[in-house]
Amino acid sequence: MGTIADQRVGRGARSPSTSVPVIFRIPRVRIGRPALLWWGWAAALFLLYATISARRQALVRTTGYDLGIFEQAVRAYARLRAPVVPLRGDGFNLLGDHFHPVLAVLAPLYRAFPSPYTLLVAQAALLALAVVPLARQAARVLGRRAAHVVACGYGLSWGIASAVGFDFHEVCFAVPLVSYALEALARRNWRRAIAWAVPLLLVKEDLGLTLAAIGAYVAWRGPRRLGIAAAVLGLVGSALEFKVLMPYFNPAGTYAHAANLAPGHHSLLTTLALAPLDAVRPEVKATTLVLVFAPAALIALRSPLALIAVPTLGWRMLSTNAFHWGTAFHYTAVLMPVVFAALIDALRPYAAADDPLARRHVRASLATVAAVTLILVPSFPLAQIAHRSTWRTTPHVTAVRELLSRIPDGATVAASNRLVPQLTSRTTVALFPTFPVHWTLYSTDGPIPPPTAQWIAYDRVPPESWPYPPGPWPYPAPRQEQEYATTLARHGYVRVAEADGVSLLRRKG
């Protein structure tokens, strides 16, 4: 019978002839087990977001404004063309609407899978990816159980839910960038934080202000020169995009949303003086400001990281566009990583303290976060996963699919807002009735140009779009009916088919 050493040779032990002891116990290695926490959450959230987005598209709940617009831009990039988007007006380059060249990243994926589902799945992946640095930092600072609470809180937060529940938007690229930058800030890896934040300049024009805020934080807590350089880069980058690049690409030669930034009072000085009051009135603004930090039970406000939310909250609350003030749509998504990174940072001193009372405070805080998360979920779009209508195909949806299938690939189509994303991958689509007018949004008064498309798909009974109202857009129902009747009577179209409130027209000749 051989020695213990002889028995271990061939199982990774050294030969007995070596001078190193060979009697040892081979450890059991668990590769990557901690990472399963955050990557597991990312996978689960991706499936949740992708499912909700895909069902909305399948049930004709997505819209031309905005999913159709972004698909037309990505489709153009996939064909190696400028992002000219017919939905925004004849010859309109979408870089003149918002500055988001990052959309070109999706071009290879869209070329392989030309479908609106490609954009929706990519958005789901990007939003889910942002949970990884948050959960990882929470596990490192607060422990594994706390990491689950943070991951759940972020993943089910209303800011992310509202983005998932409304089509696709470029801001989905910013959410993981901000999340990774904040993790680097928390670990005092200043260069990495700036590296993650700089690409924000390619996502949207206002996000240079977020880069500037991150730079200011680095200048305060870390290397001053690096922080100041990043802050200046963010401010100058946004200024160039607002003042030079977007007007250059815009057919009208102006910034498309300049009206949203107009002074709220007769003079600039008065506007600046009253800005603090204007930021919280009307009351919907104050409600939104509270709700932004509510997923973290307001605890995030204790951390200086919360200041990174100020630029986004500032322009939203001071905008003249009422859509920016509330909780709907995608405008809050980029703030959710800030809120939960600030939560982790605020609880860090208590978790590190060797004090039972401090540890109890951390547990109570996380329990409150979990409770608030569960309370808010039913009021926002992620609750659609449990809604019966999400899993039922209505006769209206069946009628839409049947009628739109009659339109040949490559045709030009003018379609109602909610019919647009059903057609953008295989036809050239404009909105019916024609909108915008001369590249200008919200011009609902006066005559509009007649349609010139080969086909018109008109839906007078938009399907359910909970939690948002299903009313007609961009014009009131009577105006849309008037334009439809005029099209039949004067513009050379004939009705090909009609079913369940959906009409399909074809141009004569």
TrEMBL record:
Q: Which UniProt keywords apply?
A: Membrane, Transmembrane, Transmembrane helix
Q: Short name of one Pfam family for this protein?
A: DUF2079
TM spans (from-to): 35-52, 117-135, 226-246, 289-310, 322-344, 364-383
Record protein name field: DUF2079 domain-containing protein
